[in-house]
Amino acid sequence: MTYIGIIITFVFINNFILTQFLGLCPFIGVSRKTDSAVGMGFAVIFVMSLAALATWAVYRLILVPLNVAYLQTISFILIIAALVQLVEMVIQKISPPLYKALGIYLPLITTNCAVLGIALIAVRSEYTALESFVAGIAAGLGFLLAIVVMSNLRERMDREWIPRPFRGVPIAFVTAGLMALAFMAFDKALLRNLLG
Amino acid sequence: MTSEFTKGIFKENPIFIILLGLCPTLAVSTQVVNALGMGAGVVFVLLGSNIFISLLKGFIPEKIRIPAFIVIIASFVTVVDLVMQAFAPSLSKSLGVFVKLIVVNCIILGRAEAFASKKSLSESLLDALGMGIGFTLGLLLISLIREVFGSGTITLFAMGSFDGVIRIPGLASQPARVLALSSGALLIMGYLKAFFNWLEFRREEARSWPRVRPTLRLRVAADAQRAPAPAEGALADSAAESAGSVS
After folding, report:
1. Between residues A189 and B148, which one has the greater pLDDT?
2. Cα-flanking dihedrals φ and ψ of residue B219, to 5°?
3. Contact A177 B186 (CB under 8 A)
């Protein structure tokens, strides 16, 4: 698949949140304010692209040659946990303002299904190193798009009257459901029309 | 002792009350058989990790406890994944990456951190069973609604001449397809959560009932009668509505 194809697939057609439900916990939890949603979105893009690359390297260069591919779940989750720690330390050292913006979201990302999800999907689809990296960025962009739109909607909803049982999480789910309905306009046919 | 078991099923139901482990929940809720398979996997991993972590609680250093928990959980997930690939290949195929994603299911790490690493073996065991069964029941409820109204079928395990699919007459030919799509899962989750909130509010009201002054009580009762209650009817209505707008 071409790189543009991968990007369109992961941002729109297989949007991680709205069609695969990966990363739903931060999507519901951190989407109250637009500022924090943007911060979380960029932190996810950052970690996802690096994680896709790192897990590709470990899978192709260590697990497959040693014939222990069944250890992928254990090794991937450890790589991701270590990577998040590393990224946190590096950002803290190099760019304190960036750390201030992303810092509090980074620990949350370790248990974000989306990060392990992209690593497993990239391996399963047999992507090359660069394709994995691009897929990681694209899936992160899809997450950013969904969470920013959602936070804008929720900020508007704060000003409206909502029946008491629906306040908070339930209305967020219903909104996400309607967003997912809108995203159904993006399907495989779109990709075929765009790329021929 | 029994409260350790039942709290996971009702009072602290992982899916509807404390909202943990949602990613796998919604993704595999398209068919009842997937929900059962996922539930069994989660129960096994929860039991294994809670038992191990409870036994090892004196040995794991405080500082590296989270990575240690994750390794224990990931080992059990690998066991489930390999067993499922060997003995239930079709189930393994339809669950896809979501079997491996049990690792990042927040319920399991949450129970390890909040419960098993502090309590005795028998309490952790009951906690794991209760939470696992609560998770399975929640998942089953969502998948039952999605499959019955979204495709008009109930898919179970195939046995002998029975192919495992129960078709519901009337619904099977004209299902509300939106519920089978990904947006249906999110909508149903929202409406179910609202329904459980509503139940909770009603119970709270009933509990504070005797403390309210008589005149006020009458006024509250009159208000409650006037206000329309968003019950299950609301779910069916909106489902029908959204289905109508799609087709």
Report:
1. B148
2. -65, -40
3. yes
Going by C-alpha positions, the residue among A143, A20, A38, A122 that lies closest to residue A80 is A122
Name every residue whose Cβ is closer than 8 Å to that of residue A155 and which is 6 or more positions away in sequence: A32, A33, A34
Q: Cβ(A140)–Cβ(A41) under 8 Å?
A: yes
The residue of chain A nearest to residue B196, with distances taken between CA atoms, is: A165
In a domain, A68, yes or no: yes
Distance CA A178, CA B178 (A): 10
Q: Please give, rounded to a whole number of angstroms, the shortest distance from the CA of A95 to a CA of chain B.
A: 26
Q: Say which of A19, A121, A177 has its CB closest to residue B190.
A: A177
B235 touches chain A (CB under 8 A): no
Task: Specify if A114 maps to a domain.
Answer: yes
pLDDT (tens digit per residue) in A112-160 = 788 888 999 999 888 999 999 999 999 999 999 999 999 999 999 888 8
**Does any domain span residue A196?**
no
Q: Say what the ipTM of the complex is.
A: 0.85
CA distance A117 to chain B (A): 7
pLDDT, position B9: 78
As a whole number, the mean pLDDT across chain A is 86
Q: Range of A112's domain?
A: 3-186
All residues of chain B having their beta carbon less than 8 Å from the beta carbon of residue A18 are: 182-183, 186
Q: Which residues pair with B153 in a beta bridge?
A: B167
Determine contact: B120 vs chain A, CB below 8 A.
no
In chain B, where the domains are located: 2-167, 177-246
Phi and psi at A17, nearest 5°, equal -80, -50
Evaluate whether residue A10 is within a structural domain: yes
pLDDT tens-digit map of B40-89: 999 999 999 999 999 988 888 887 888 888 899 999 999 999 999 999 88
- The alpha-helical segments, DSSP class H, found in B112-164 are 121-150
